[in-house]
Amino acid sequence: MTPRHSETEGTGPEEPVVVRDRRRVDPQTGEVRPPAAEETPAGEEPAQHAGPSLGDSVDEAVPAASDVEKQLSERTADLQRLQAEYANYRKRVDRDREAVVQGAKASVVGDLLPLLDDLQRAEQHGDLTGAFKAVADKLVSSLERSGLEAFGAEGEEFDPSVHEAVQHNTSPDVKGPTVTLVMRRGFRFGDRVLRAALVGVTDHEPGEAPAEPPVDGSVGGELPLDGSVDESGQQ
């Protein structure tokens, strides 16, 4: 007898087992709550999202950092070059501005040179006296403070760059080309020669060699070697 076998033969197909999760049912409203997150079936490990590994992230970060450093060095070099160009530009502008100012001053002073010549001639003739002389002295002092300098005096060494020779002489009293006559003074303003000096130049002329004294043939009272006899008849 197999009563268990007979019992199973009379039953129909087995119904599937359904597990109902009462935790998702709201006890107050009776509605099913939405799943907070995907539920992982029992016995299965949660799926891991694919992503870069630690080694891959380090490898990608190193080139990025090197690119940033390269760009930073390039920008720094550009900034330094721009700063140097600006400094040179400022120096050039200051130099050009100073040259323009000095040129303007030199032009004004150059127009006053004939007046200074007249004042010098008046002083040489004794006409520069009194209040006229005081005004002339103030004018000359102001021009000298601005940078005006007169040159060309007797006894100076001749310099063709600042002297214009209009007369030439020779003399044994000088050692080289020397200014011995000043016809018109020269003037310079700073490093610029406004007018060359008109001068007379004297060059050195070798003089005649002095005559040599006669040579006495006697030495220490002894007779001359040639055997000559003086007027007394002694040898």
Outline:
Homodimer. It contains four helices and six strands.
Main sheet specs:
3 strands, antiparallel
Quaternary organization: single chain
Shape: elongated
Structural class: alpha+beta
Strand % is 15-25%
Q: What's the N-to-C terminus distance? A: 201 Å
Relevant terms:
235 residues, alpha+beta, 3-stranded antiparallel sheet, 3-stranded mixed sheet, 15% strand
Structure characterization notes:
With 235 residues, this protein is α+β, with helices and mostly antiparallel strands. It has helices spanning 3-9, 54-111, 113-124, 130-146, and strands spanning 148-151, 163-171, 178-184, 186-189, 192-195, 197-204. The strands form 2 sheets. A 3-stranded antiparallel beta sheet has the order 1-4-5. A 3-stranded mixed beta sheet has the order 2-6-3, with no helix packed on it. Strand 4 (186-189) and strand 5 (192-195) form a beta hairpin. The protein is elongated. The protein starts with a helix and ends in a 31-residue tail after the last strand.
Secondary-structure map:
Elements: H1 3-9, H2 54-111, H3 113-124, H4 130-146, E1 148-151, E2 163-171, E3 178-184, E4 186-189, E5 192-195, E6 197-204
Parallel strand pairs: 2-6
Antiparallel strand pairs: 1-4, 3-6, 4-5
Family: Belongs to the GrpE family.
Biased composition (Low complexity): 34-45
Subunit structure: Homodimer.
